[in-house]
Structure formats: C-alpha cells, structure tokens
TrEMBL record:
It catalyses: a 1-acyl-sn-glycero-3-phosphate + an acyl-CoA = a 1,2-diacyl-sn-glycero-3-phosphate + CoA. The keyword Acyltransferase applies. The keyword Transmembrane helix applies. The gene is LOC121220165. Belongs to the 1-acyl-sn-glycerol-3-phosphate acyltransferase family. The chain crosses the membrane at residues 12-34, 307-325, 331-352. PANTHER family: 1-ACYLGLYCEROL-3-PHOSPHATE ACYLTRANSFERASE-RELATED, 1-ACYLGLYCEROL-3-PHOSPHATE O-ACYLTRANSFERASE. Its EC number is 2.3.1.51. This is 1-acylglycerol-3-phosphate O-acyltransferase. GO terms for molecular function: acyltransferase activity. Residues 86-200 form the Phospholipid/glycerol acyltransferase domain.
Length: 370
C-alpha cells in the first residue's frame, strides 16, 4: 500500500465520488424514464453528464500530475478523428491506457462517447464501473463461450448510436509485464512467429468479432501505438497521477478503413497479428530515436474545459460539505468528517490495488531478446 498515494488521492477521490454519485443518480433516472422511450435521447443526455465526470479524470492527469501526451499521425487521420465511429486498437502497457484514450478522445471532441471493452470485475468499482455500464462499455468474463454472444449483441446495439463513438479494444488481453512478455516470446518461438520485444501476441477473436459486427457502420480502425520514454523517472499509473509525479507518453496513430480489411475471419486475424509485428518494430525505432516518423500534432494541448469543470464541481463540493458539517451538532462534526475521510481512503486503496501491476515472477534480464 502506498500511504502517500492514498493521502494524496483523498481530495480527488472525494470529489470524484461526489460528482460520480450525482452522475449515477441522473443516469438511473434517465435510464428508467427516457431509455424506454428514446435510446437516442438517453445516449445524448448520458454522454453529456458522463463527460463531466471523465473530465475530472482528464484534469487529474493533465493538470494535477503534469501528464503530457504527444500525438503523432498524418494530416488526414488528424482531420477525421472525432468525426467518425472508430475502433481503437492500442497496445496495453499500463493501467492508465484507458485513461490515455480518454485524453485523446477529449481532444477530438468525443470523450462523451468513449467506450471500451473491460473485464467484468471493473463493473464493480464504485462510480467508475457503474458509469461505464450506463455508457454501454462492454464487460467480459474472459471466457469466449460466454463473451462471444455478449460482444456481438453489444456491437449490434451500437448501430444507431447518435454521435461518433470510439470503441477501445485491448487485443493483447492484458498489460505488458516481464512475465507476460516471456510467455509471448516462448509462444512465438514455438509457432515460428517473429519474437516480440515490446508487445504481446494479440488474441484475435475479439477484434475479428468487432470488425465483422461493426464494419457496416464503423468506417475506421485506429491502430494506436503507445510508447513510454525509458529515460523518464516515473511510469504512468493511477498512483503516480495521485502523487503528482509527471510523466510523458508518445502516441502514434494510423488509420485503416474497415472496408479495406480482409473479408474472412482468418484474414482479419492475420491482419491484426501483422499490425502488432509492425507495432513492435515501431516501438524498437522509438526506443532508438525517441520519436516517431510522423509529425507531432502540435495543436493538441491540455484541456481548459477539464480545468473549468473540475473547479466548478470542487467549489460546489467544498461549499456543500461546509454547510453539511455546520448543520451537524458540534459533537458529531469531527467523527463524521473522520468517517468520511476514512471511507474515501479505503476507496482510494481499492482503486490503487485494482490497477496495480502484479509482482513479477521473473527478472527482466531473463526475457528473451533474440
């Protein structure tokens, strides 16, 4: 347990829970009253209020911790991002990857419709999981017998989505660790595949289902490559954000038309594997040069909107909290405040533990690099 991270996270998580409860109450009310009448109207309202909550997370990363994202892509892709439905296919390097896609989505104007595929247990996280459920993110058991039908029905339900959405799929299935990389290298060696150094072998069933289910109304896949400079002192995680430890990430984005992808399941699967081989080579080049070939999109700056929204909700939270405590009798003020702080500290601990990387079973020097 990181005591400093918990202490530092209490103010933000308190605000996040306060805002999240308001958002969740509105979501429940709208789901019960508006969804049965008009899914489109519910989605627009839900997207607007969900964006307010996610903007607080964007503020935490960009303003509180000083997280910097440098985006590299071509001019055509830059112009289309945020204006079309898209499948987002990033490599998975840390617990902040989903949050990173939110920053990208916010910068192109579709944070309110940033969806993702996550493991089922994420749905039990206070506020975070509940809000994602109402936003139609997809929760999986990691059991294909159960997940296949859930994916197909969830994808089909998005055919009438009223605004451009991003559906993020982490096709590696898990975050990159030394243990997982060694397993991937052993598997690649046994199959005669190129030996990866920076990515895992993609699990292609999910992306094949996504392409086949969505290609009729989703025009693009954005192949997103996340690179973390090795020389920086901090690794991007929820804990480093709470502790105000600044770090940088470079992101390379390449757009592919879904109509240009192979028609067969096997062809899509091979296309995905080829993309991850290319990702691995791209990351090797980044490690050697510190940059990508495509020019950086310099117009992407940290969000002023997230700052304004967070300041407004923080003001409401502080004033409301002060009034609430003042209305309590003097004997109950301090015990109530201590109970609230203690409860929030427990929630912070839950979030940190949930996102923490598992302890390595092997040493980094054991990883195969041939």
């Amino acid at each position: 347990m990181e005591f400093s991270g918990i202490v530092g996270g209490i103010p933000f998580i308190s605000l996040f829970i306060f805002t999240g409860i308001l958002v969740n109450l509105i979501q429940v009310s709208c789901y019960l009253t508006i969804w049965p009448v008009s899914k489109s109207t519910f989605r627009r309202i839900n997207g607007a209020i969900t964006e307010l909550l996610w903007l607080e997370v964007v503020w935490l990363m960009e303003w509180w911790s000083g997280f910097e994202v440098k985006v590299h892509t071509d001019a055509k892709t830059s112009q289309l991002m945020g204006k079309e439905h898209a499948i987002i296919m990033p490599n998975h390097v840390s617990d902040s990857d989903t949050l990173l896609t939110w920053i990208l989505a916010q910068r192109v104007g579709c944070l309110r419709s940033a969806l993702t595929i996550v493991k089922k247990t994420t749905g039990y996280l206070p506020v975070f999981g509940w809000t994602n459920w109402f936003s139609e993110s997809i929760f999986l058991d990691r059991n294909w017998a159960k997940d296949e039908s859930k994916l197909k029905s969830s994808f089909e339900a998005l055919s009438d989505y009223p605004t451009p959405f991003w559906m993020t799929i982490f096709v590696e299935g898990t975050r990159l660790t030394a243990d997982k990389l060694l397993e991937a290298q052993s598997f690649a060696s046994s199959k005669g595949y190129p030996i990866p150094k920076n990515v895992l072998i993609p699990k292609t069933k999910g992306i094949v289902t996504a392409v086949q289910s969505l290609r009729s109304f989703v025009p693009a896949i954005y192949d997103v490559t996340i690179a973390i400079p090795k020389q920086q002192p901090f690794f991007p995680t929820l804990l480093t954000f709470l502790k105000m430890q600044p770090c940088k990430v470079a992101v390379h984005i390449k757009r592919y038309s879904t109509k240009d992808l192979p028609e067969s399941d096997q062809g899509i699967a091979q296309w995905c594997r080829n993309r991850f081989i290319a990702k691995d080579e791209l990351l090797e080049t980044f490690a050697a040069t510190g940059t990508f070939d495509e020019e950086e999109i310099t117009g992407f700056r940290r969000s002023t909107k997230s700052l304004i929204v967070t300041l407004i909700f923080a003001s409401i939270f502080l004033v409301g909290g002060w009034i609430f405590l003042q209305r309590l009798s003097s004997g109950w003020q301090y015990p109530t405040l201590a109970t609230i702080i203690g409860s929030v500290a427990i929630v912070v601990h839950i979030f940190i533990e949930f996102t923490k990387m598992p302890p390595p079973k092997i040493k980094a020097t054991q990883i195969c690099t041939q």
